Predict the structure of Ferritin-like domain-containing protein.
Amino acid sequence: MSDPLSLYPAIEAALMCDCIVAKPAQAQALYRQWLAGGYARAGGALYPVPAPGRPARPLLVAATDVPRRGLGSAEGRAALLHAIAHIEFNAINLALDAAWRFRAMPDAFVDDWLRVAAEEAQHFLLLQQRLAALGYAYGDFPAHNTLWDMAVQTGHDVLTRMALVPRVMEARGLDAVPPIQRRLAIVGDHDSAAVLATILQEEVGHVRIGNYWFTTLCDARGLDPLETFRSLLGQYQVALLRGEMNRSARLAAGFTEFELSMLEDFSVTRQRTVTRSKHEQAV
Ligand SMILES: [Fe+2]
Ligand SMILES: [Fe+2]
């Protein structure tokens, strides 16, 4: 058998790849070859990544400038699927970055995040197929430019990354999918709804991975997970919930009933506090 290749330059190449065909293919090949023992954890300098590789299109705009359309037309459905495809494209990068950046973590961490990167690549491919069926492609609509921000903000600490990316951003995805599936079913787009069902199932696994590593890291540092999580939400000014919580998916992903109830209360209290302080500022 030939000598294993150096893992970190291979991950970096996928992370910085700006081609929408090559990046998902590289992410999936990385995971296969890592599992087959084709890589040694070696090589490559570590540095902050202000922006991973991305194609010239979609045009990146402020989140508030991404147009929202009704789902009655193919264009409206394509715009929605495009927004999700953009999240998946960024999710490939977020997962690759976790496997690349946090080098003191054990091999099981690399297993998990390369698996997530490969699954995010599959999600991106599934959504590209749905876009093509509607006569569109990734890049046809503007997209928002904020998804990488959390990677930059949490690049210094793996515990913070696990708290705020899988346990907040990906967990919000669990909440967001069922209402979208219902809206797609109402307009008869059952193929797109079926793709989202596949994605939701695998996203539960991603959040579970985040929960596992977050609690493992809290244990190792002698920290209380709930207190630590709440304090990070406040410190980074992160909203835990946007809309209704998907309790069953979050429970399947390893959150406990107790924790979800506490977090719901905490979110409501924080929202009231933010609203009150905005009101006071206005006055
Ligand atoms: Fe995904
Ligand atoms: Fe994910």
User: Anything to note?
Assistant: The chain has one domain: 5-282.
